[in-house]
Fold each of these.
Amino acid sequence: MTRQAWWLIMDGVTKTDRGARRADGRQEQKVLMLSERSRGDANPILYIDENDVQAGHAAGIGQVNPEQLYYLMSRGISKDEAERLIIMGFLEPVVTRIPVEGIRQQLLTVIERKLQA
C-alpha cells in the first residue's frame, strides 16, 4: 500500500531446486495506491530448476475501486469511512495471518492511526 508520492517496489522470489518434484510455488503481489502521485512496481521472479512442478505468479496494482466506493457511499457511509473499509479489506488477508494476537492488534492500531493522518 502506498500513500502520497511513495514508490513501492516488490521483488517476490520463488526458487525451486532440481529434485523438488511435485513442488508447488505460487506468489501473489498486490499494491494499493492511495494517491495519484504514488507508484507501485510488482516484480514476480521464478527460478525453477525442476520440470515436475507447479508454479505461478500474479500481480495487481491499482487504486481504490470507485465502484466499491460509490456502493458504500450509496448506503450512507461517508467517503472517508468507505475508503477506510476498502483499505482494511485489502489488508485483512495479510493481517489475519499474523499468529500472535498482541502483534496483530498493534499492527491494526498503527494502520488505523496512519489512515486517520
Amino acid sequence: TLFNLKVLEILGWYNPYTKEVKFNNERIKHYLQNNTEVSQSVSSLFKKHKIIN
C-alpha cells in the first residue's frame, strides 16, 4: 500500500489551503530525466508551476 512506501527524498511541499509551494526544481528534474513516474496530481502541480511542460 501507499502507506508502506519508503520516502527517498523530499522534493518540496504544497499547501492546498494557502496555495504556497516550495519545490527543489533541480532534484525534481533529475528524477524526471531518469524516468521516474509521478501521479497525475503531482504532474498537474509541476505543469502549473512550470517545472515540466
Amino acid sequence: MTDPIRDLLLDPERLKALGAQLKRHHAELRAELVALRTDPGRDLMSHCLTFCGHLREHHTNEDRAFGAFEAQFPALVPVIARLRDEHRAIAGTIAEIERTGVTDGLLERLDAHFAYEEQHLASW
C-alpha cells in the first residue's frame, strides 16, 4: 500500500507546491486574525471561535503529516518536535480564549509560529 504523504515528499515539485500552499494558508489565517482585531463591527467572540476552530483543524492536519516528514527528512525531527510543542501551547491558548474571551498575545504567538514553520518546512 502506498503512503500518499510519503509519495508527495519524494516529488520535489509537489513538495515545493506544498510549501507555497502552506504559506498561502498561513496568510489567510493571519488576515483573518487581523480582521478579528481591527473590525469593530464584527461579533469578535463568535468570529474568534470560528478562527480558532480553523486553526485547530490546520494544526491537526499538520500533526498527521509530521511522521512522514520525519521519516523522509530526519534532519527535521527537532524542527517538528518544536512545532508539535508550539501546537500544544497554541491549543492551550485557544482553550484559554474559549474560557475567558481574552485574545491578547494570540496574533504575536501565531505570527512567530507561522514564520518558524515557513522558514523550516516551506522553504525547500
